């Protein structure tokens, strides 16, 4: 049975934790934005909360979290906050239900969002995850696919990350990155029109396994891919530049690694 177009919303969540050990670490802060299926944010304010932690809990953090959360001010905010994890879980679910009234329809979305989900499936956040669909939309997975299969020109224009490790800033970056890939690969949800027969006939392929013909030019099968693919890539990049996307960290990653997209982080 063919897949049908989904019109259900996406629930974008980013969490900052005391660490990544599910047996002892906890969520310090989280931010949630909800978009429709076409990545339009439904509420510009979103939902954001900082959960109270004791000094003993925060002192038990590892070196990286201690330095990072201390630098952003999150550690101090956790000490000052009066909100419990239970309160935040209740508020978050109510916020999601306001924009996603149907159970098991909306998908959790974000970057490497399975890591956030691993904490959110635990109490007291379990009801939140039970309200959402079991599938997720992971922008990091799209990025990894792009680094392997997309034209280099598209990778060069991919959005950079500030690396703030602040829930609100990080999740808004995730949405922006998803919009970039939407325009680069999915053409805003539209299906490309078929070429007119007259245009399709201008490039004849003879079907010979050892060589093919584009117009009057003898080329090998791989050259066909390169010639056609380069044109499509250039069109895609020009379209993205028109939308305001410029050279960012994708270009820098490729430059550092001699143009090897597989080594670009």
Helix content: 40-55%
Tell me the radius of gyration. 23 Å
Strands in their spatial order, largest beta sheet? 3-2-1-4-5
Total beta strands: 7
Q: In terms of structural class, how would the helical and strand content be classed?
A: alpha/beta
- The low-confidence runs, each spanning 5 or more residues with pLDDT under 50, are 198-230, 251-265
Distance between the termini: 37 Å
Alpha plus pi helix count: 12
Write up what this structure looks like.
This protein has 265 residues and is an alpha/beta fold. The protein is 46% helix and 13% strand. The chain is globular. Residues 198-230 and 251-265 have low confidence and may be disordered. Belongs to the oligoribonuclease family. Residues 9-187 form the Exonuclease domain.
Key structural traits:
hydrolase; Nucleotidyltransferase, domain 5; nuclease; two-stranded antiparallel ribbon; about 260 residues; Ribonucl_H; Ribonuclease H-like protein; alpha/beta; disordered C terminus; about 15% strand; 5-stranded mixed sheet
Sequence-ordered SSE layout with sheet pairings:
Blueprint lengths: L9 E8 L9 E9 L11 E4 L4 H5 L3 H10 L1 H7 L4 H15 L7 E4 L2 H8 L5 H6 L4 E3 H11 L2 H5 L10 H20 L10 H4 L11 E3 L2 E3 L1 H22 L6 H8 L9
Parallel strand pairs: 1-4, 4-5
Antiparallel strand pairs: 1-2, 2-3, 6-7
Helix pairs in contact: 9-11
């Amino acid at each position: 049975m063919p897949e049908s177009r989904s019109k259900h919303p996406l629930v974008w969540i980013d969490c900052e934790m005391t660490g990544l050990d599910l047996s002892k670490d906890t969520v310090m802060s989280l931010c949630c934005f909800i978009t429709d299926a076409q990545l339009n944010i439904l509420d510009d304010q979103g939902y954001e909360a900082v959960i109270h932690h004791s000094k003993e809990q925060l002192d038990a953090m590892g070196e990286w979290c201690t330095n990072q959360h201390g630098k952003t001010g999150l550690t101090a905010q956790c000490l000052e906050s009066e909100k419990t994890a239970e309160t935040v879980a209740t508020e978050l679910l109510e916020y999601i239900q306001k924009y996603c009234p149907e159970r098991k329809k909306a998908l959790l979305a974000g970057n490497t969002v399975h890591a956030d989900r691993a904490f959110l499936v635990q109490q007291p956040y379990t009801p939140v995850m039970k309200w959402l669909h079991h599938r997720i939309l992971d922008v990091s997975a799209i990025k990894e696919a792009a680094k392997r299969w997309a034209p280099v020109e598209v990778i060069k224009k991919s959005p950079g990350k500030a690396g703030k490790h602040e829930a609100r800033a990080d999740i808004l970056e995730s949405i922006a990155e998803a919009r970039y890939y939407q325009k680069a690969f999915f053409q805003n949800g539209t299906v490309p029109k078929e070429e007119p027969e007259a245009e399709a006939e201008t490039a004849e392929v003879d079907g010979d396994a050892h060589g093919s013909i584009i117009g009057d030019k003898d080329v090998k099968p791989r050259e066909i891919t390169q010639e056609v693919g380069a044109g499509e890539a250039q069109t895609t990049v020009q379209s993205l530049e028109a939308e305001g996307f410029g050279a960012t960290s994708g270009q820098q990653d490729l430059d550092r690694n001699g143009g090897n997209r597989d080594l670009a982080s």
